[in-house]
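thread: overnight batch results

M.L. [08:02]
morning all. the overnight job finished for the chain we discussed friday. pasting input first so we're all looking at the same thing
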Amino acid sequence: MSRLADYFVVIGYDHDKDRNGSSEGKILQRFPETDWESCPLTQSIELFCRPIGWTLSAHRQPPEFFVAVLTDIDADRHYLSVLTFSESVAISPTKSDDGDTEEESALTIHSLMYSPKCLVLVSRLDYFETFKNCLGIIYTAYVDKLDVQLEVLVGNILGCVQVPPPGGPQVRFSIGAGDRQALQPPVSATVPSSRNVTALLFQQLGIQNVLTLFCAALTDHKILFHSQSYSRLTDACQAINILQYPLKYSYVYVPILPAPLYEVLNTPTPFIAGVHSSLADDTADLVDVIVVDLDGGSVHIPECVNLPTLPEPMVSRAKKALTMIDITALSTCTWSEMVMNADLLMADYAFPPPSPKKPPSLEQKDKEIRAIFIRFFAELLTGYRSCLTVIRIHPEPFITFHKANFLGHRGMVDDEFIVRVLEGMGFGTFVAERGTPYRSCDIFDEVYANIHEQLTAETGDPEKVMENIKELAKLLNTNESPNPQPYVQKVPKPTDGAYSRIHQAPFPVLESLSVHKILTEGIEKHNLKSKMNLRPIQVRIVPMGTPITALVDRQRIVDNNARRLEVLRNCINFVFDNKISDARIIFPAVLRALKSRVARLALTQELSYHIRSNRAVLEHQQFDLVVKLLNCCLQNDSSMDENGVAAAILPLATTFCRKLCTGIIQFAYTCVQEHAVWQNMQFWEAAFYQDVQKQIQQLYAPQYEENHVSDKHDSYQGSPTLKNNELNVSKNCSNGHGGSQEKRSSYRAREIGALEIAAEQLRTWPTLSEGRKEEMVSNEESTVYSQAIHYANRMVYMRVPLETQKTIKTLSPDWESTSNSNIASSLADSESIDAESGYDEMEICDVGTNVIKFVTRFVDKVCNDSRVTQEHIKSLHQMIPGVVAMHIETLEAVNRESKRLPPIQKPKILKPSLLPGEEVVMDGLRVYLLPDGREEGLGGNMGGPTLLPAEGAIFLTNYRILFKGTPCDPLACEQIVIRSFPISTLTKEKLVKLQYTPHIDQLPKEGLQLRACIFQLMKIAFDEEVSPDDVEAFRKLSTKYRSPTTVFMTFAFVGQVVPQPSAMLKPVEKNASLKNFAKKTIMKTARKAGIAKQKTPKRKYVLPTPPMSRRSMSPRSSAGSDSESDRPASEALDDLSIIDEGEFGRSWSSDPKVIERLMERPGYQDYVRQGFGDPSDVTLRGKSIDQFRISTVNSNFSVSKSYPALLVVPANFPDDSIRKFARTHRQYRFPVVTWRHPRTKALLLRASGFHGRGLMGMLKSDPTTGTSTGEISASLQQERYFSTIVAATPNSMKSYKPSYSDSLTSLDSLMLSGVQDSLLVPETPEVVRRSHPTTGSMRNLNNPKSSFLTLPRRTARTRSAWQTFSRIGSIREKPRMNSSSATLDTSPAMLHQNGGVSERSDLLHSSVQGLKRVALYVLGEKAQMKGIKVESFPKCDFIPVDFYEVRHVKASFKKLMRACVPSAPLAPETGFLKLVEESEWLLQVQNIMQLSGATVDLLDVQGSSVMICLEDGWDCTTQVVSVSQLLLDPYYRTIEGFKSLVEKEWLSFGHRFTHRSNQTVANQASGFAPMFLQFLDVVHQIHNQFPLSFEFNQFFLRFIAYHYVSNRFRTFMMDNEYERVEAGWLMDDRRSSKINHDQSDLEGGFVPFARHQSNQGMSIWDYIEKHHRKTTLFMNFLYSPTDEDAVLRPYSNISNLRIWDYYLLEDLAHGPAYEIETTNKEIQISEEEKTDSSGQPLLRKIVNGCYDNVLLQQPNAFRLMLQELHKLETDLGHFQQKWKTVWDKLELPTGKRETMHRNLSFNTQIVKSHGRSIHKRSTLEILVKGKMLGEAAKMFSQPHRFEKHTYTTPAYCDYCSQVLWGLLKTGMHCTDCGYNCHEKCLSHVPKNCTKLKIVPDSSSSSANVSRASDTSTLKSEELPVETGPTYATYTPTTTATENSCLHKGYLFKRGALLKGWKQRWFVLDSTKHQLRYYDSEEDTNCKGFIELFEVQSVQPIRNVQGAPKKADENAFFELKTSRRIYNFLAADAKTAQNWIDRIHSFI
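M.L. [08:03]
and the structure it wrote out:
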């Protein structure tokens, strides 16, 4: 029996501390006046009585009641029941201090105010309703002046009402006011009473929110409720608390937190708290607190809080149950009631049944909700009792929980929720209270015992779910109200309105003596009653519930693992029978099988069986295999040891051993120490407790006969059967419930587990004698102590390393986070000392010290928990250092002897096949080639043999890094694995940490990772026999050969003498010092004896320094001139551009033979082929009858060092003029003709970007002339040159016949069909999102009149609402934007019409200038196009285009390499295709194809000339020009033509191969830039789409891609022709190729270089040509050249592009197939080895994807027939014909070609026409986009006007496509265009605001819809599509049609200089895109204008200084341009806003 209440307190307002109506609470009276000893009165309870503060009120408040909860230092809760009422207070006016003035406004003081007074009951019991009644009676007696003494009431409450404990009878009492009250204790003390609080919480927050809070509370998060009602706060906190039953909340719990204690919320510990809503605003500062608004029903979870998800299927089952209750009236099959949402299941019924007469009460719902959560916990914790470990039974039970075992059996190791629950304090208390096997049970124990059977039954019969829930709810209800007959209480209540009486006396002061007297009498009476016997608590054995092992579907596991376990047993038997070779054969299969948990446990059982058979001492090979098996087991298991594998290995590792020599034995534990599990303290504790339990079980087992059966069963004599292997997994479970699938009753009959033994012992304990009790306690103590000694030894064995000088480094050290006791500090100490110490003795001591600390910490923990005596603990502490010291001494001898063992026989190092001239620099180092992130060759999902890891050697030659070896997998060890790459392609080398790899015994900690730019990766681990010095030497040598000083030190020139300068380059002077010069040049292997330093002829240009002009790449140009950064304007002094004319002026320009020899080169021969001139006619006079000539103006490289010697220029343009105007282009790379269309005679020109006029004019001026004169002269010559080009273009003078007749063939017809309904520029893709890309286009083919021009949506994102036209603007600004289609989609839903764009004045005409046909299109960079005066270049059009700079290509290539050749397996969320997409490589390929496609159309269809002027003219320009010619001219699609194309465009025109490919040490820092590889990829894409149009095959492209960076050939070396001339290559190259081609070397190779190439290196073209003559390796047999496909127009959609297989292919059989000689040798060797028993070669060949090269191995009909013909000719003795001769003789069947050509199907014509249409639309898109940028300028590059916006519905961020969710998380919304984004995305959003919104157009003619400020972006659903094309209209803010293009009015403008305000007449002209101003409206002379394309922003401003008087401050606005800021003043604010809107609409 206990008191109902401990204290009664009266608390009032402290008037002494009053400060303007605010004060503190003050205890007026308290009873009893002295504290009870058991529970003192809590301090500061006055704070909790008025949580928001003690203040006076002007109005009398009605009485309030709530209960606050306080927790004392012992974690006991005290309940403060508070009843508050108002008392009147007379206030006399007082003088106010100055200091009080601040607070006077807070509260108005009247003469009559009301102060709060509180009556408080403090109790440790939670009978809230009774407290409310008692306080209510006291208040009623006071306010209604009842005839009863208040002292009697208080005394009775405190002294006379005694409450029985839970389970006791109902108490009926009266406190003396004529009341009758009843108080019912709950049946069980452990089951909380909830009344209706949980149902109330669900009602307030909803199911999902409550589940979120439930999850947060269980996972130790901070939760804060706020509400207007204190009672609701208490109820909500109590509800969350109750829902956690059977767990108890153990952290801070303050349902009502007073305002002064608000700082408590900053505590780092979890809490559940509540505050009044008036404090809710302060919660914003709480970053990690979940805030719950009870009144609003919302839950706010901060971003930093990561809530785990509740586990399935428990949470789904709970959610489903929460939404339904069983039927009430209708049928047995329908649920008609819901827990929270009434009638949800019947909401759709046509005839719903009548609602039940009596809806279920909240109390009933409350119990049902609680029942659901109790079932949730019972299901979640199913099997927990099987994982309880009994450590001590007497004198007090000590039981722990094996967390890892539970998680492993339940499969929840990775479930974050359950892991955090099990680690929480609540679960620790749960185990401590409920782990005891003999105690009183409650509802949860009963539910837990039956939940498994219930759930199984419910699966078959869903209706039982609600039946079981209802039944459990009844039990809960009975627990709270066990008495079925309700007692009618009588509680007096105050009369209505009593509290508001005006004359109400204050609450009287109680007489303390009378209260104490009544209190004392009541206590005495209670002492008499307490002697009455109460019903004893029922104690019983706790039901075990379903064993955890019964939860696994064993049959399925056995079926899946039977074969694996059979292989495992066979392997172990082979090992112990010493059949080592047999064991090794099946060993890989065993290692794979050990990935299964069952197999790992079965292995430990098999090994333990062999230990019992006395086979613990092993031979060396047996020992190695056993150790490997144990290591594999531990590696596949986690450090948590959830499967008990490590615990099972512990005894094995300390038993298996081998004899090293007499008296020295090595145990297995010395070889399995490097696993994280041994560092995990939790593992050691759990394993120790498991073994202690077994010992305790054996201690008491003899008392129970039943156990003998199971003993015999456990100690089986035979090898375990398969079933036992599987089913005995449960040995790790503590209670022995693991043996079978029988019911629990049969379990008990066979075996009594540890918990049952403990329960029986606890039951009989009181009956035992004291002597017997002491004996049992002593026995248990000894058991635990002996086991502690045993484990201390085990820990020393596992923790002291074999080499005691080194600390153990774990493979995956994750033990710190999982250890009970933090041992991180000790290890850190040891490592730091280890690093600093230099003495072995000190280090050994450190290792021992750390082990001693670790073991001592373990001993302290487990012995104290297990209540071992302090004497025993002390003796353990003394023992441990001695054990460690002895063990270290023993290990030294073991370590010494183990190193003397004979080495294991390793495979022979295989010698690699080398190329002629290739030499081994560093002989083979034995290594393992490890698998990387590629799946090929691993034998996994892709199948095939397990080729990696492989064991062999790595060789470093002067050309390659090469690995050759054999797979470690014995099943694949007969194959040879080769992986190699040229040393020049090495891009990154780094050391990497290595993880355990199957098949490798002793893997080192670190390995080397080598990455090559040919998409190759080597991950190698050096064998232990390789010394660190050898590794370091290998790294240094590889770096040396990777980065030679000059290109002449590369493999292309191996074994050569240093190249001498050719005769034509001999120096003029001999007096210059070679030493001083060569130090400063890259060519310091010295081709010259000096540079002329005497007086030379007059220089045309000034050199900065003579040495700089000789360098192959200067520091300036390597950093600044490669388009990787904003290029400075001061490039006049760039050494690549300026050359001393006198250097070799005489020898070049005066020697016709030199020019004639140059003309023999393929690039120059191409000019002759096109008819630009003949070598015999090209002389210094330069006369030619053609319009063009081959000029020698650059023959001595005086104009541009990076240009070729001979250039095609207009015939009538003199060389002197060329020299002058070359300065207008970067690097002096002026426009030259490179190709001419054979039909239209249109020209393709190439140049670099334009230089700015101002600064460059000053820097590049002629020394002899003035600055301005030079600039003007250059400009004039430039204009003249352009006009000459225009004049030479036939298109400029006459029309031509188009190549096709259909209406979509010419750009003109396409434009006309597009602009008859105006040019359509889509603005937002919200309407585009769901449309299909081909429907509209196909429709237009049939109906040309309905075709439209629209720009494509180029994004692959589904939710990006702002990326359709976002590519207008630089690609560089949008690295995140993807491109998915270049198709100009014309489906109706995608089309937008430009509002206000009519035939009279449309956006096309005004901004794009009609895209009129011109003779010359110049495609260039945006930045340079802005400054060009178009009027100076008639018939020219300058189109700014988007292109990717070199820096983007570099970054993209790196990402592509990581995607195609990952160094580690890819994560599931980042797949291969996703990584390729993120690299943006295909976007760059697409960009090149689109620019080239536009060039093709302009040249072929339009007949206009095209000039490409991008960056420095040697990267992107070369790509576009090359691809364009390949598409236009079939000649370039032959092998000879492709050679000419590459020689001409890439080599002659100076692509910087040495710099871009980092061929020398000077270029290493710039980074690899694969511009040429990108070009080859584009050719590959075209080849894929047009396989019949190319003479060469894909292997040809891959071969070039490989060798352009391999440095095997000299072709792709040097940066320009000038450097190659200096090297003497160009003059010698042609002749060297005339060598007798029939001389061949062995194996079809070539003669060594020294004989072959006369010391100049080999050309790749010669190599290809010779191979092409001999073999069909490069031939495309499908090649079918036809006139019809002369011009190719490939699709450039992303969907049409393919990832090049060059990036993905690998041939492990022979290395890269592009090394043809070595590949042939390796194939020949392997074929010689593969013979059958008779010696004949095998006819069958197995080809594996990543091992063999499919191209070489796959039979080819043409190749086989040619080989057969060759063989027959040899057999017959005939003259052997070349294969090409035979092939060319073949004739097609007559007539077939013509018929096929004529009879094209209609569908084929449509497809071809559609392809042309798509292609030309892409061209128009580029033109329109460029013109929009150049003229309409800022329309698509404006910054947004963002404002914070709250989204009422889910929206998506237009930048990152993630959800923007509104009410709580605001986003950013552009008020101009409606763009939405996250705040974090703001800085990345492209500045492409259109300032326009889209509104639906009601009719096709209404183009002037006024723009409302709140017009929302048009959604796709709003577009009616049934009646035909409907457009979204761009609507400038206009009110009349005539004003759509022009707006005018008077404005005051502020002067720039004197800042005066003058009135001007302003005209806004959209046609000229200007804002012009005049003196007055009548004035015709414009005073000035503002270009609208320069406008950056326009916005209203205020507080303008110097403003005119009487001006409206809201009428000012500011217009900001790129030049200056303008200030304007309008007549009023409305007019100003109108002007702002108008200007916005035009920019």
